[in-house]
Amino acid sequence: MRILCATDLLPKSDAAVDRAAMIARGLDADLSLVHVVASSRSEDALERRVQRALTSMTRFRVPRWQHRAVPNVLLRAGNPASEVVRVLREARAQLVVLGPHRRRRVRDALGGTIAEKVLGARCCPVLIVRREPLTAYRNILLALDLSPASGEVVETAESLIRTTGAASAVIHAFEPPYSGVFGHVQPDMESVGAANCAERYEAKNALQRVLTRRSQEPERYDLILSSAFPAEAVLRAIARKQPDLLVMGTRGHGRVLRGLLGSVTDRVLRSVACDVLIVPRGSLERSAPVIKQGARHFATVSLSPSASGSG
Q1: What Cα–Cα distance (Å) separates residue 111 from each residue in 50, 102, 104, 260, 275?
Q2: C-alpha to C-alpha distance for 263 and 282, rounded to whole angstroms
Q3: Which end of the chain is more exposed for a tag (fewer CB within 10 A), N or C?
Q4: Residue 221's closest CA among 144, 106, 130?
């Protein structure tokens, strides 16, 4: 099992590093930390940046490193987003952990271009850490839409976040009956109520089928069914359950910014304060063969920048 955590070496990224170490310990996984120094036309300027980074990265070594296993530490030079994706592909990691990044108006719903590119690569799940990890996750909420990707979300959450006794819930929003015609045709409200009940019943059965097929403990989940639109339903469930981790999928293709801008995933990420595990569609299939192989070692540790360009 391999976990990769990208860090900008700023204090705001410490929570992501600590959470990655905590998860690695729980899974007996190899952890690698990667920092990318931005390219420079001046060799002297690049050398100064490298030396500052090397000094900061001593915190990841004994005696300053407080976690059990000392991580592999990699320092690269180039475009940060491109280099993180490059390392991810070389390492064939099953999880990427990122911290919060500086908000930049519309572009930063997913934590900046690193998260955008990592999700766009669709290689593995991405955990965005926003809170200091005082304990293992104790309250987990899964947002499922009953698409083929829903099973991947369930399996990924259970394989990566193994928390015994954690409160677990699923939120699913089914489209309100007549939602496309309200304002034009006034339906009979008794019919609306009957249709709502039928939709709810079908949605509940579908959720139970997904959990029965893909979960190791389907009975652990509290099912929350809402006839609100998806983003509103998820945000209401978060307000009600107060999870420390939200798990959701994405069906976006190509550039994540284009695929998700204005979508449920994008809106939820803009609004929540908890950690978020995002499972790109197909990422479970891509990482599963590596998990089955039981490989234990990451790429060769490097504390010098690669020769790659700005990519």
Answers
A1: 24, 7, 9, 13, 12
A2: 19
A3: C
A4: 144
End-to-end Cα spacing for the chain = 28
Q: What radius of gyration, in Å, describes the C-alpha atoms of the chain?
A: 21
261 burial via Cβ count (<10 Å: 0-12, 13-18, 19+)? middle
Ordered domains of the chain (ranges, CATH): 131-280 (3.40.50.620)
* CA–CA separation, 36 and 13 (whole Å): 14
- Distance, CA of 90 to CA of 65 (rounded, Å): 25
230-241 and 264-271 helices cross at what angle (nearest 10)? 30
d(CA 4, CA 10): 17
Q: How many CB atoms lie within 10 A of CB 244?
A: 22
pLDDT at 168 over 90: yes
Asked if the model's pLDDT at residue 191 lies above 60, the reply is no
Task: Give residue 102's pLDDT band: very low, low, confident or very high (50, 70, 90).
Answer: low
- Alpha helices by DSSP H, listed for 141-260, are 149-160, 189-214, 230-241, 256-260
Q: Which residue has the higher pLDDT, 80 or 253?
A: 80
Which are the contacts of 254, defined by CB distance < 8 A and separation ≥ 6? 120
| Mean pLDDT rounded to a whole number for the chain | 79
Q: Are strands 30-37 and 167-173 parallel, antiparallel or unpaired?
A: unpaired
pLDDT at 295 over 50: no
pLDDT above 50 (res 289): no
Could you tell me the two tokens for 293?
Answer: 């192989």
Residue of 198 and 298 predicted with greater confidence: 198
Residues near 65 by beta carbon (within 8 Å), at least 6 away in sequence: 59, 71
